[in-house]
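pasting for ref. prot 1 ->
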Amino acid sequence: MKLKINNTYFLLIIIWILCASCGVYSFNQGSIGPDVKTISIANFYNESGNGPPNLGQTFTESLKSYYQQNSRLGIVKDNGDWQLEGRINGWNLAPVAPQGDQTSAFTRLTINVQVKFTNTKDEKSSFEQGFSWYADFAASESPQAAEGRLIPEIFEKIIFNIFNKTTSDW
């Protein structure tokens, strides 16, 4: 029994050392170097040809809000230490879960966002990448009726993935 207690203490000490050695990492700010103070987020435009007219504006404001709430970075209009820009380049509705009578039980809304991230303090961490997420709704519900609850849900996942990509060196 005494051996288990010692192993537990040993394990806790190792975990504490590993966490303490992470320096600039915190669970809500990811890996943001101390020299990075600002982020500029350009307007994302909806180039998909579909969706509500304010889709790009909604995405841009949600992205800014997420960085304000989950990092110490100040939002600036131009020339931030970090720069995000991009466009919504996909809005797709597709049937899913076919039934025996040749109909579909659900419809899937997928939104794609192309993002360009520039890190002026560390160019090798800059990237250009597409991010995508989807949500399903009952086929009996109209897409316009489902949009109000699906768009925030999809944007939340995409923005979370963008944040993790920009703040993680893993």
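and prot 2 ->
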Amino acid sequence: MSRTEETRRVATKDYDIARMTEHDLLAVVELEETCGLSRWGWEAYYHEIVEGRGALMLVARSTSLCNEERAKGVLGFIAARFSADEVHINNVAVRHDFRRCGIGGALLDRVLREASLCGVRTAILEVRASNTAAQALYRQHGFVNVGLRRGYYAEPREDALVMKAVI
């Protein structure tokens, strides 16, 4: 199957969203490194999965791949943390070939839905000032700009917009 055909299949919801497991971590870290995120690395994700109280770590996995390829089939992920009545969205990433297929929005929807069920009232995140695609996604989910963190990102050095949503 070509990449275009595979992307078309994903666009028709050929993926599942599930809790991240340690079996997903190599694919998650690889994705993190290719997406320009502030790097957490394997150990930080592992800690959040195993010991992270209040952490919600989800992956979108392809359902069209055979079992041996499914671990590599992580199409996207989201890392969030609950604190009192707020959820902080730490990282969201989708494989480049699968962007604009609704995966990022589905991951964000799931976190916001679970947050609401837990009584959380607000969501907050930081996003690169240059990442207009992500900002548009967040605005579609009710986020608005509430601040600026100068020099927040290190590689490359860049400001972050602080965005907040009422859930």
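The beta strands are 15-19, 55-62, 74-83, 86-94, 122-128, 144-154, 157-166.
The longest helix spans residues 103-117.
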